[in-house]
Design goal:
Elements: H1 21-28, H2 32-45, H3 50-68, H4 92-115, H5 120-139, H6 144-164, H7 172-184, H8 187-190, H9 202-215, H10 220-233, H11 237-261
Helix pairs in contact: 1-2, 2-3, 3-4, 3-5, 4-5, 5-6, 6-7, 7-9, 9-10, 10-11
Length: about 260
């Protein structure tokens, strides 16, 4: 998946812990019908795992994005299109399934966190679910403020993870993405109440994405894709080429890891 939707810069890209190798291969081959079927089977086998619902929700959303051409990134331009994007129109059935899956993921993650507020898998799943909803609000509902709110909630969850475990490099993907997006917004939007405490900074965001691409284990490929897209948007051609090479290397490593460990 060499290009990535702009909307992905408003939230965390989703890693696939415990997903089957078949589902993973289908997803990254853009075979979303097959990926959805595999993730749905995994969900039926483990219905109390919030990750399963996140896997399904992301595949449903990506299929709609793919069909609408929303995986063709606008980040190659120097414009600021964060508040603009052609609307994605999933079918009513896909909207229903997406809403149900994300709501269930949020519910199950909240149940884990009610027992232990510092449960890292629960925090991770919560951040992913809100990130997916941020995508949905941005692309489908065209509700950019709701999208930014959900992306900020996702960041808070993953911030807590890195407070608990500084070595959880993959959770920093959300932080890097959020810093870059907020840093790209006009000043008038940065004073919104839910962004209090988050000034955003594009260079900080880029450095964090580079860290995840280099040292992450779950999200290194996603970070490399985003990094390449960001460099293209910033018209930093030489760095974009290096990031694209890193992206391809990370993809090969990811496939090898998933197949080797039958994830």
């Amino acid at each position: 998946m060499g290009k990535l939707s702009l909307a992905l810069l408003a939230c965390a890209a989703l890693a696939f812990p415990q997903a089957s190798s078949k589902a993973f291969e289908h997803f990254y081959s853009l075979e979303y019908d097959e990926a959805i079927a595999e993730f749905d089977r995994a969900l039926q086998a483990d219905p109390q795992n919030p990750d399963r619902y996140n896997h399904l929700a992301q595949s449903i959303l990506y299929r709609a994005m793919y069909r609408a051409g929303a995986l063709e990134s606008e980040l190659v331009t120097g414009n600021n299109p964060f508040l603009r994007r052609e609307k994605v129109n999933p079918s009513p059935e896909d909207q229903r399934r997406f809403d149900q899956a994300v709501s269930k993921a949020v519910e199950l993650a909240a149940a884990r966190l009610a027992k232990n507020p510092d449960d890292i898998p629960g925090l991770y799943a919560q951040g992913v679910a809100y990130g997916l909803r941020a995508n949905y609000n941005f692309l489908v509902r065209k509700a950019w403020m709701d999208s930014l709110k959900d992306a900020t909630t996702a960041r808070k969850a993953h911030n807590r993870i890195t407070e608990l475990d500084r070595n959880f490099i993959d959770a920093r993907l959300v932080q890097g993405v959020h810093d870059y997006v907020v840093g790209s917004l006009p000043f008038t939007y940065k004073i919104l109440g839910f962004l209090v405490g988050f000034r955003g900074d594009k260079e900080t965001g880029i450095r964090t994405l580079r860290l995840v691409a280099d040292k992450g284990t779950r999200n290194n490929y996603d970070a490399a894709v985003l990094l390449a897209a960001v460099y293209r948007r910033e018209r930093r051609a030489e760095e974009a080429i290096r990031a694209s090479l890193r992206e391809k290397e990370a993809m090969l490593q990811e496939i090898h890891h998933r197949v080797k460990n039958n994830l």
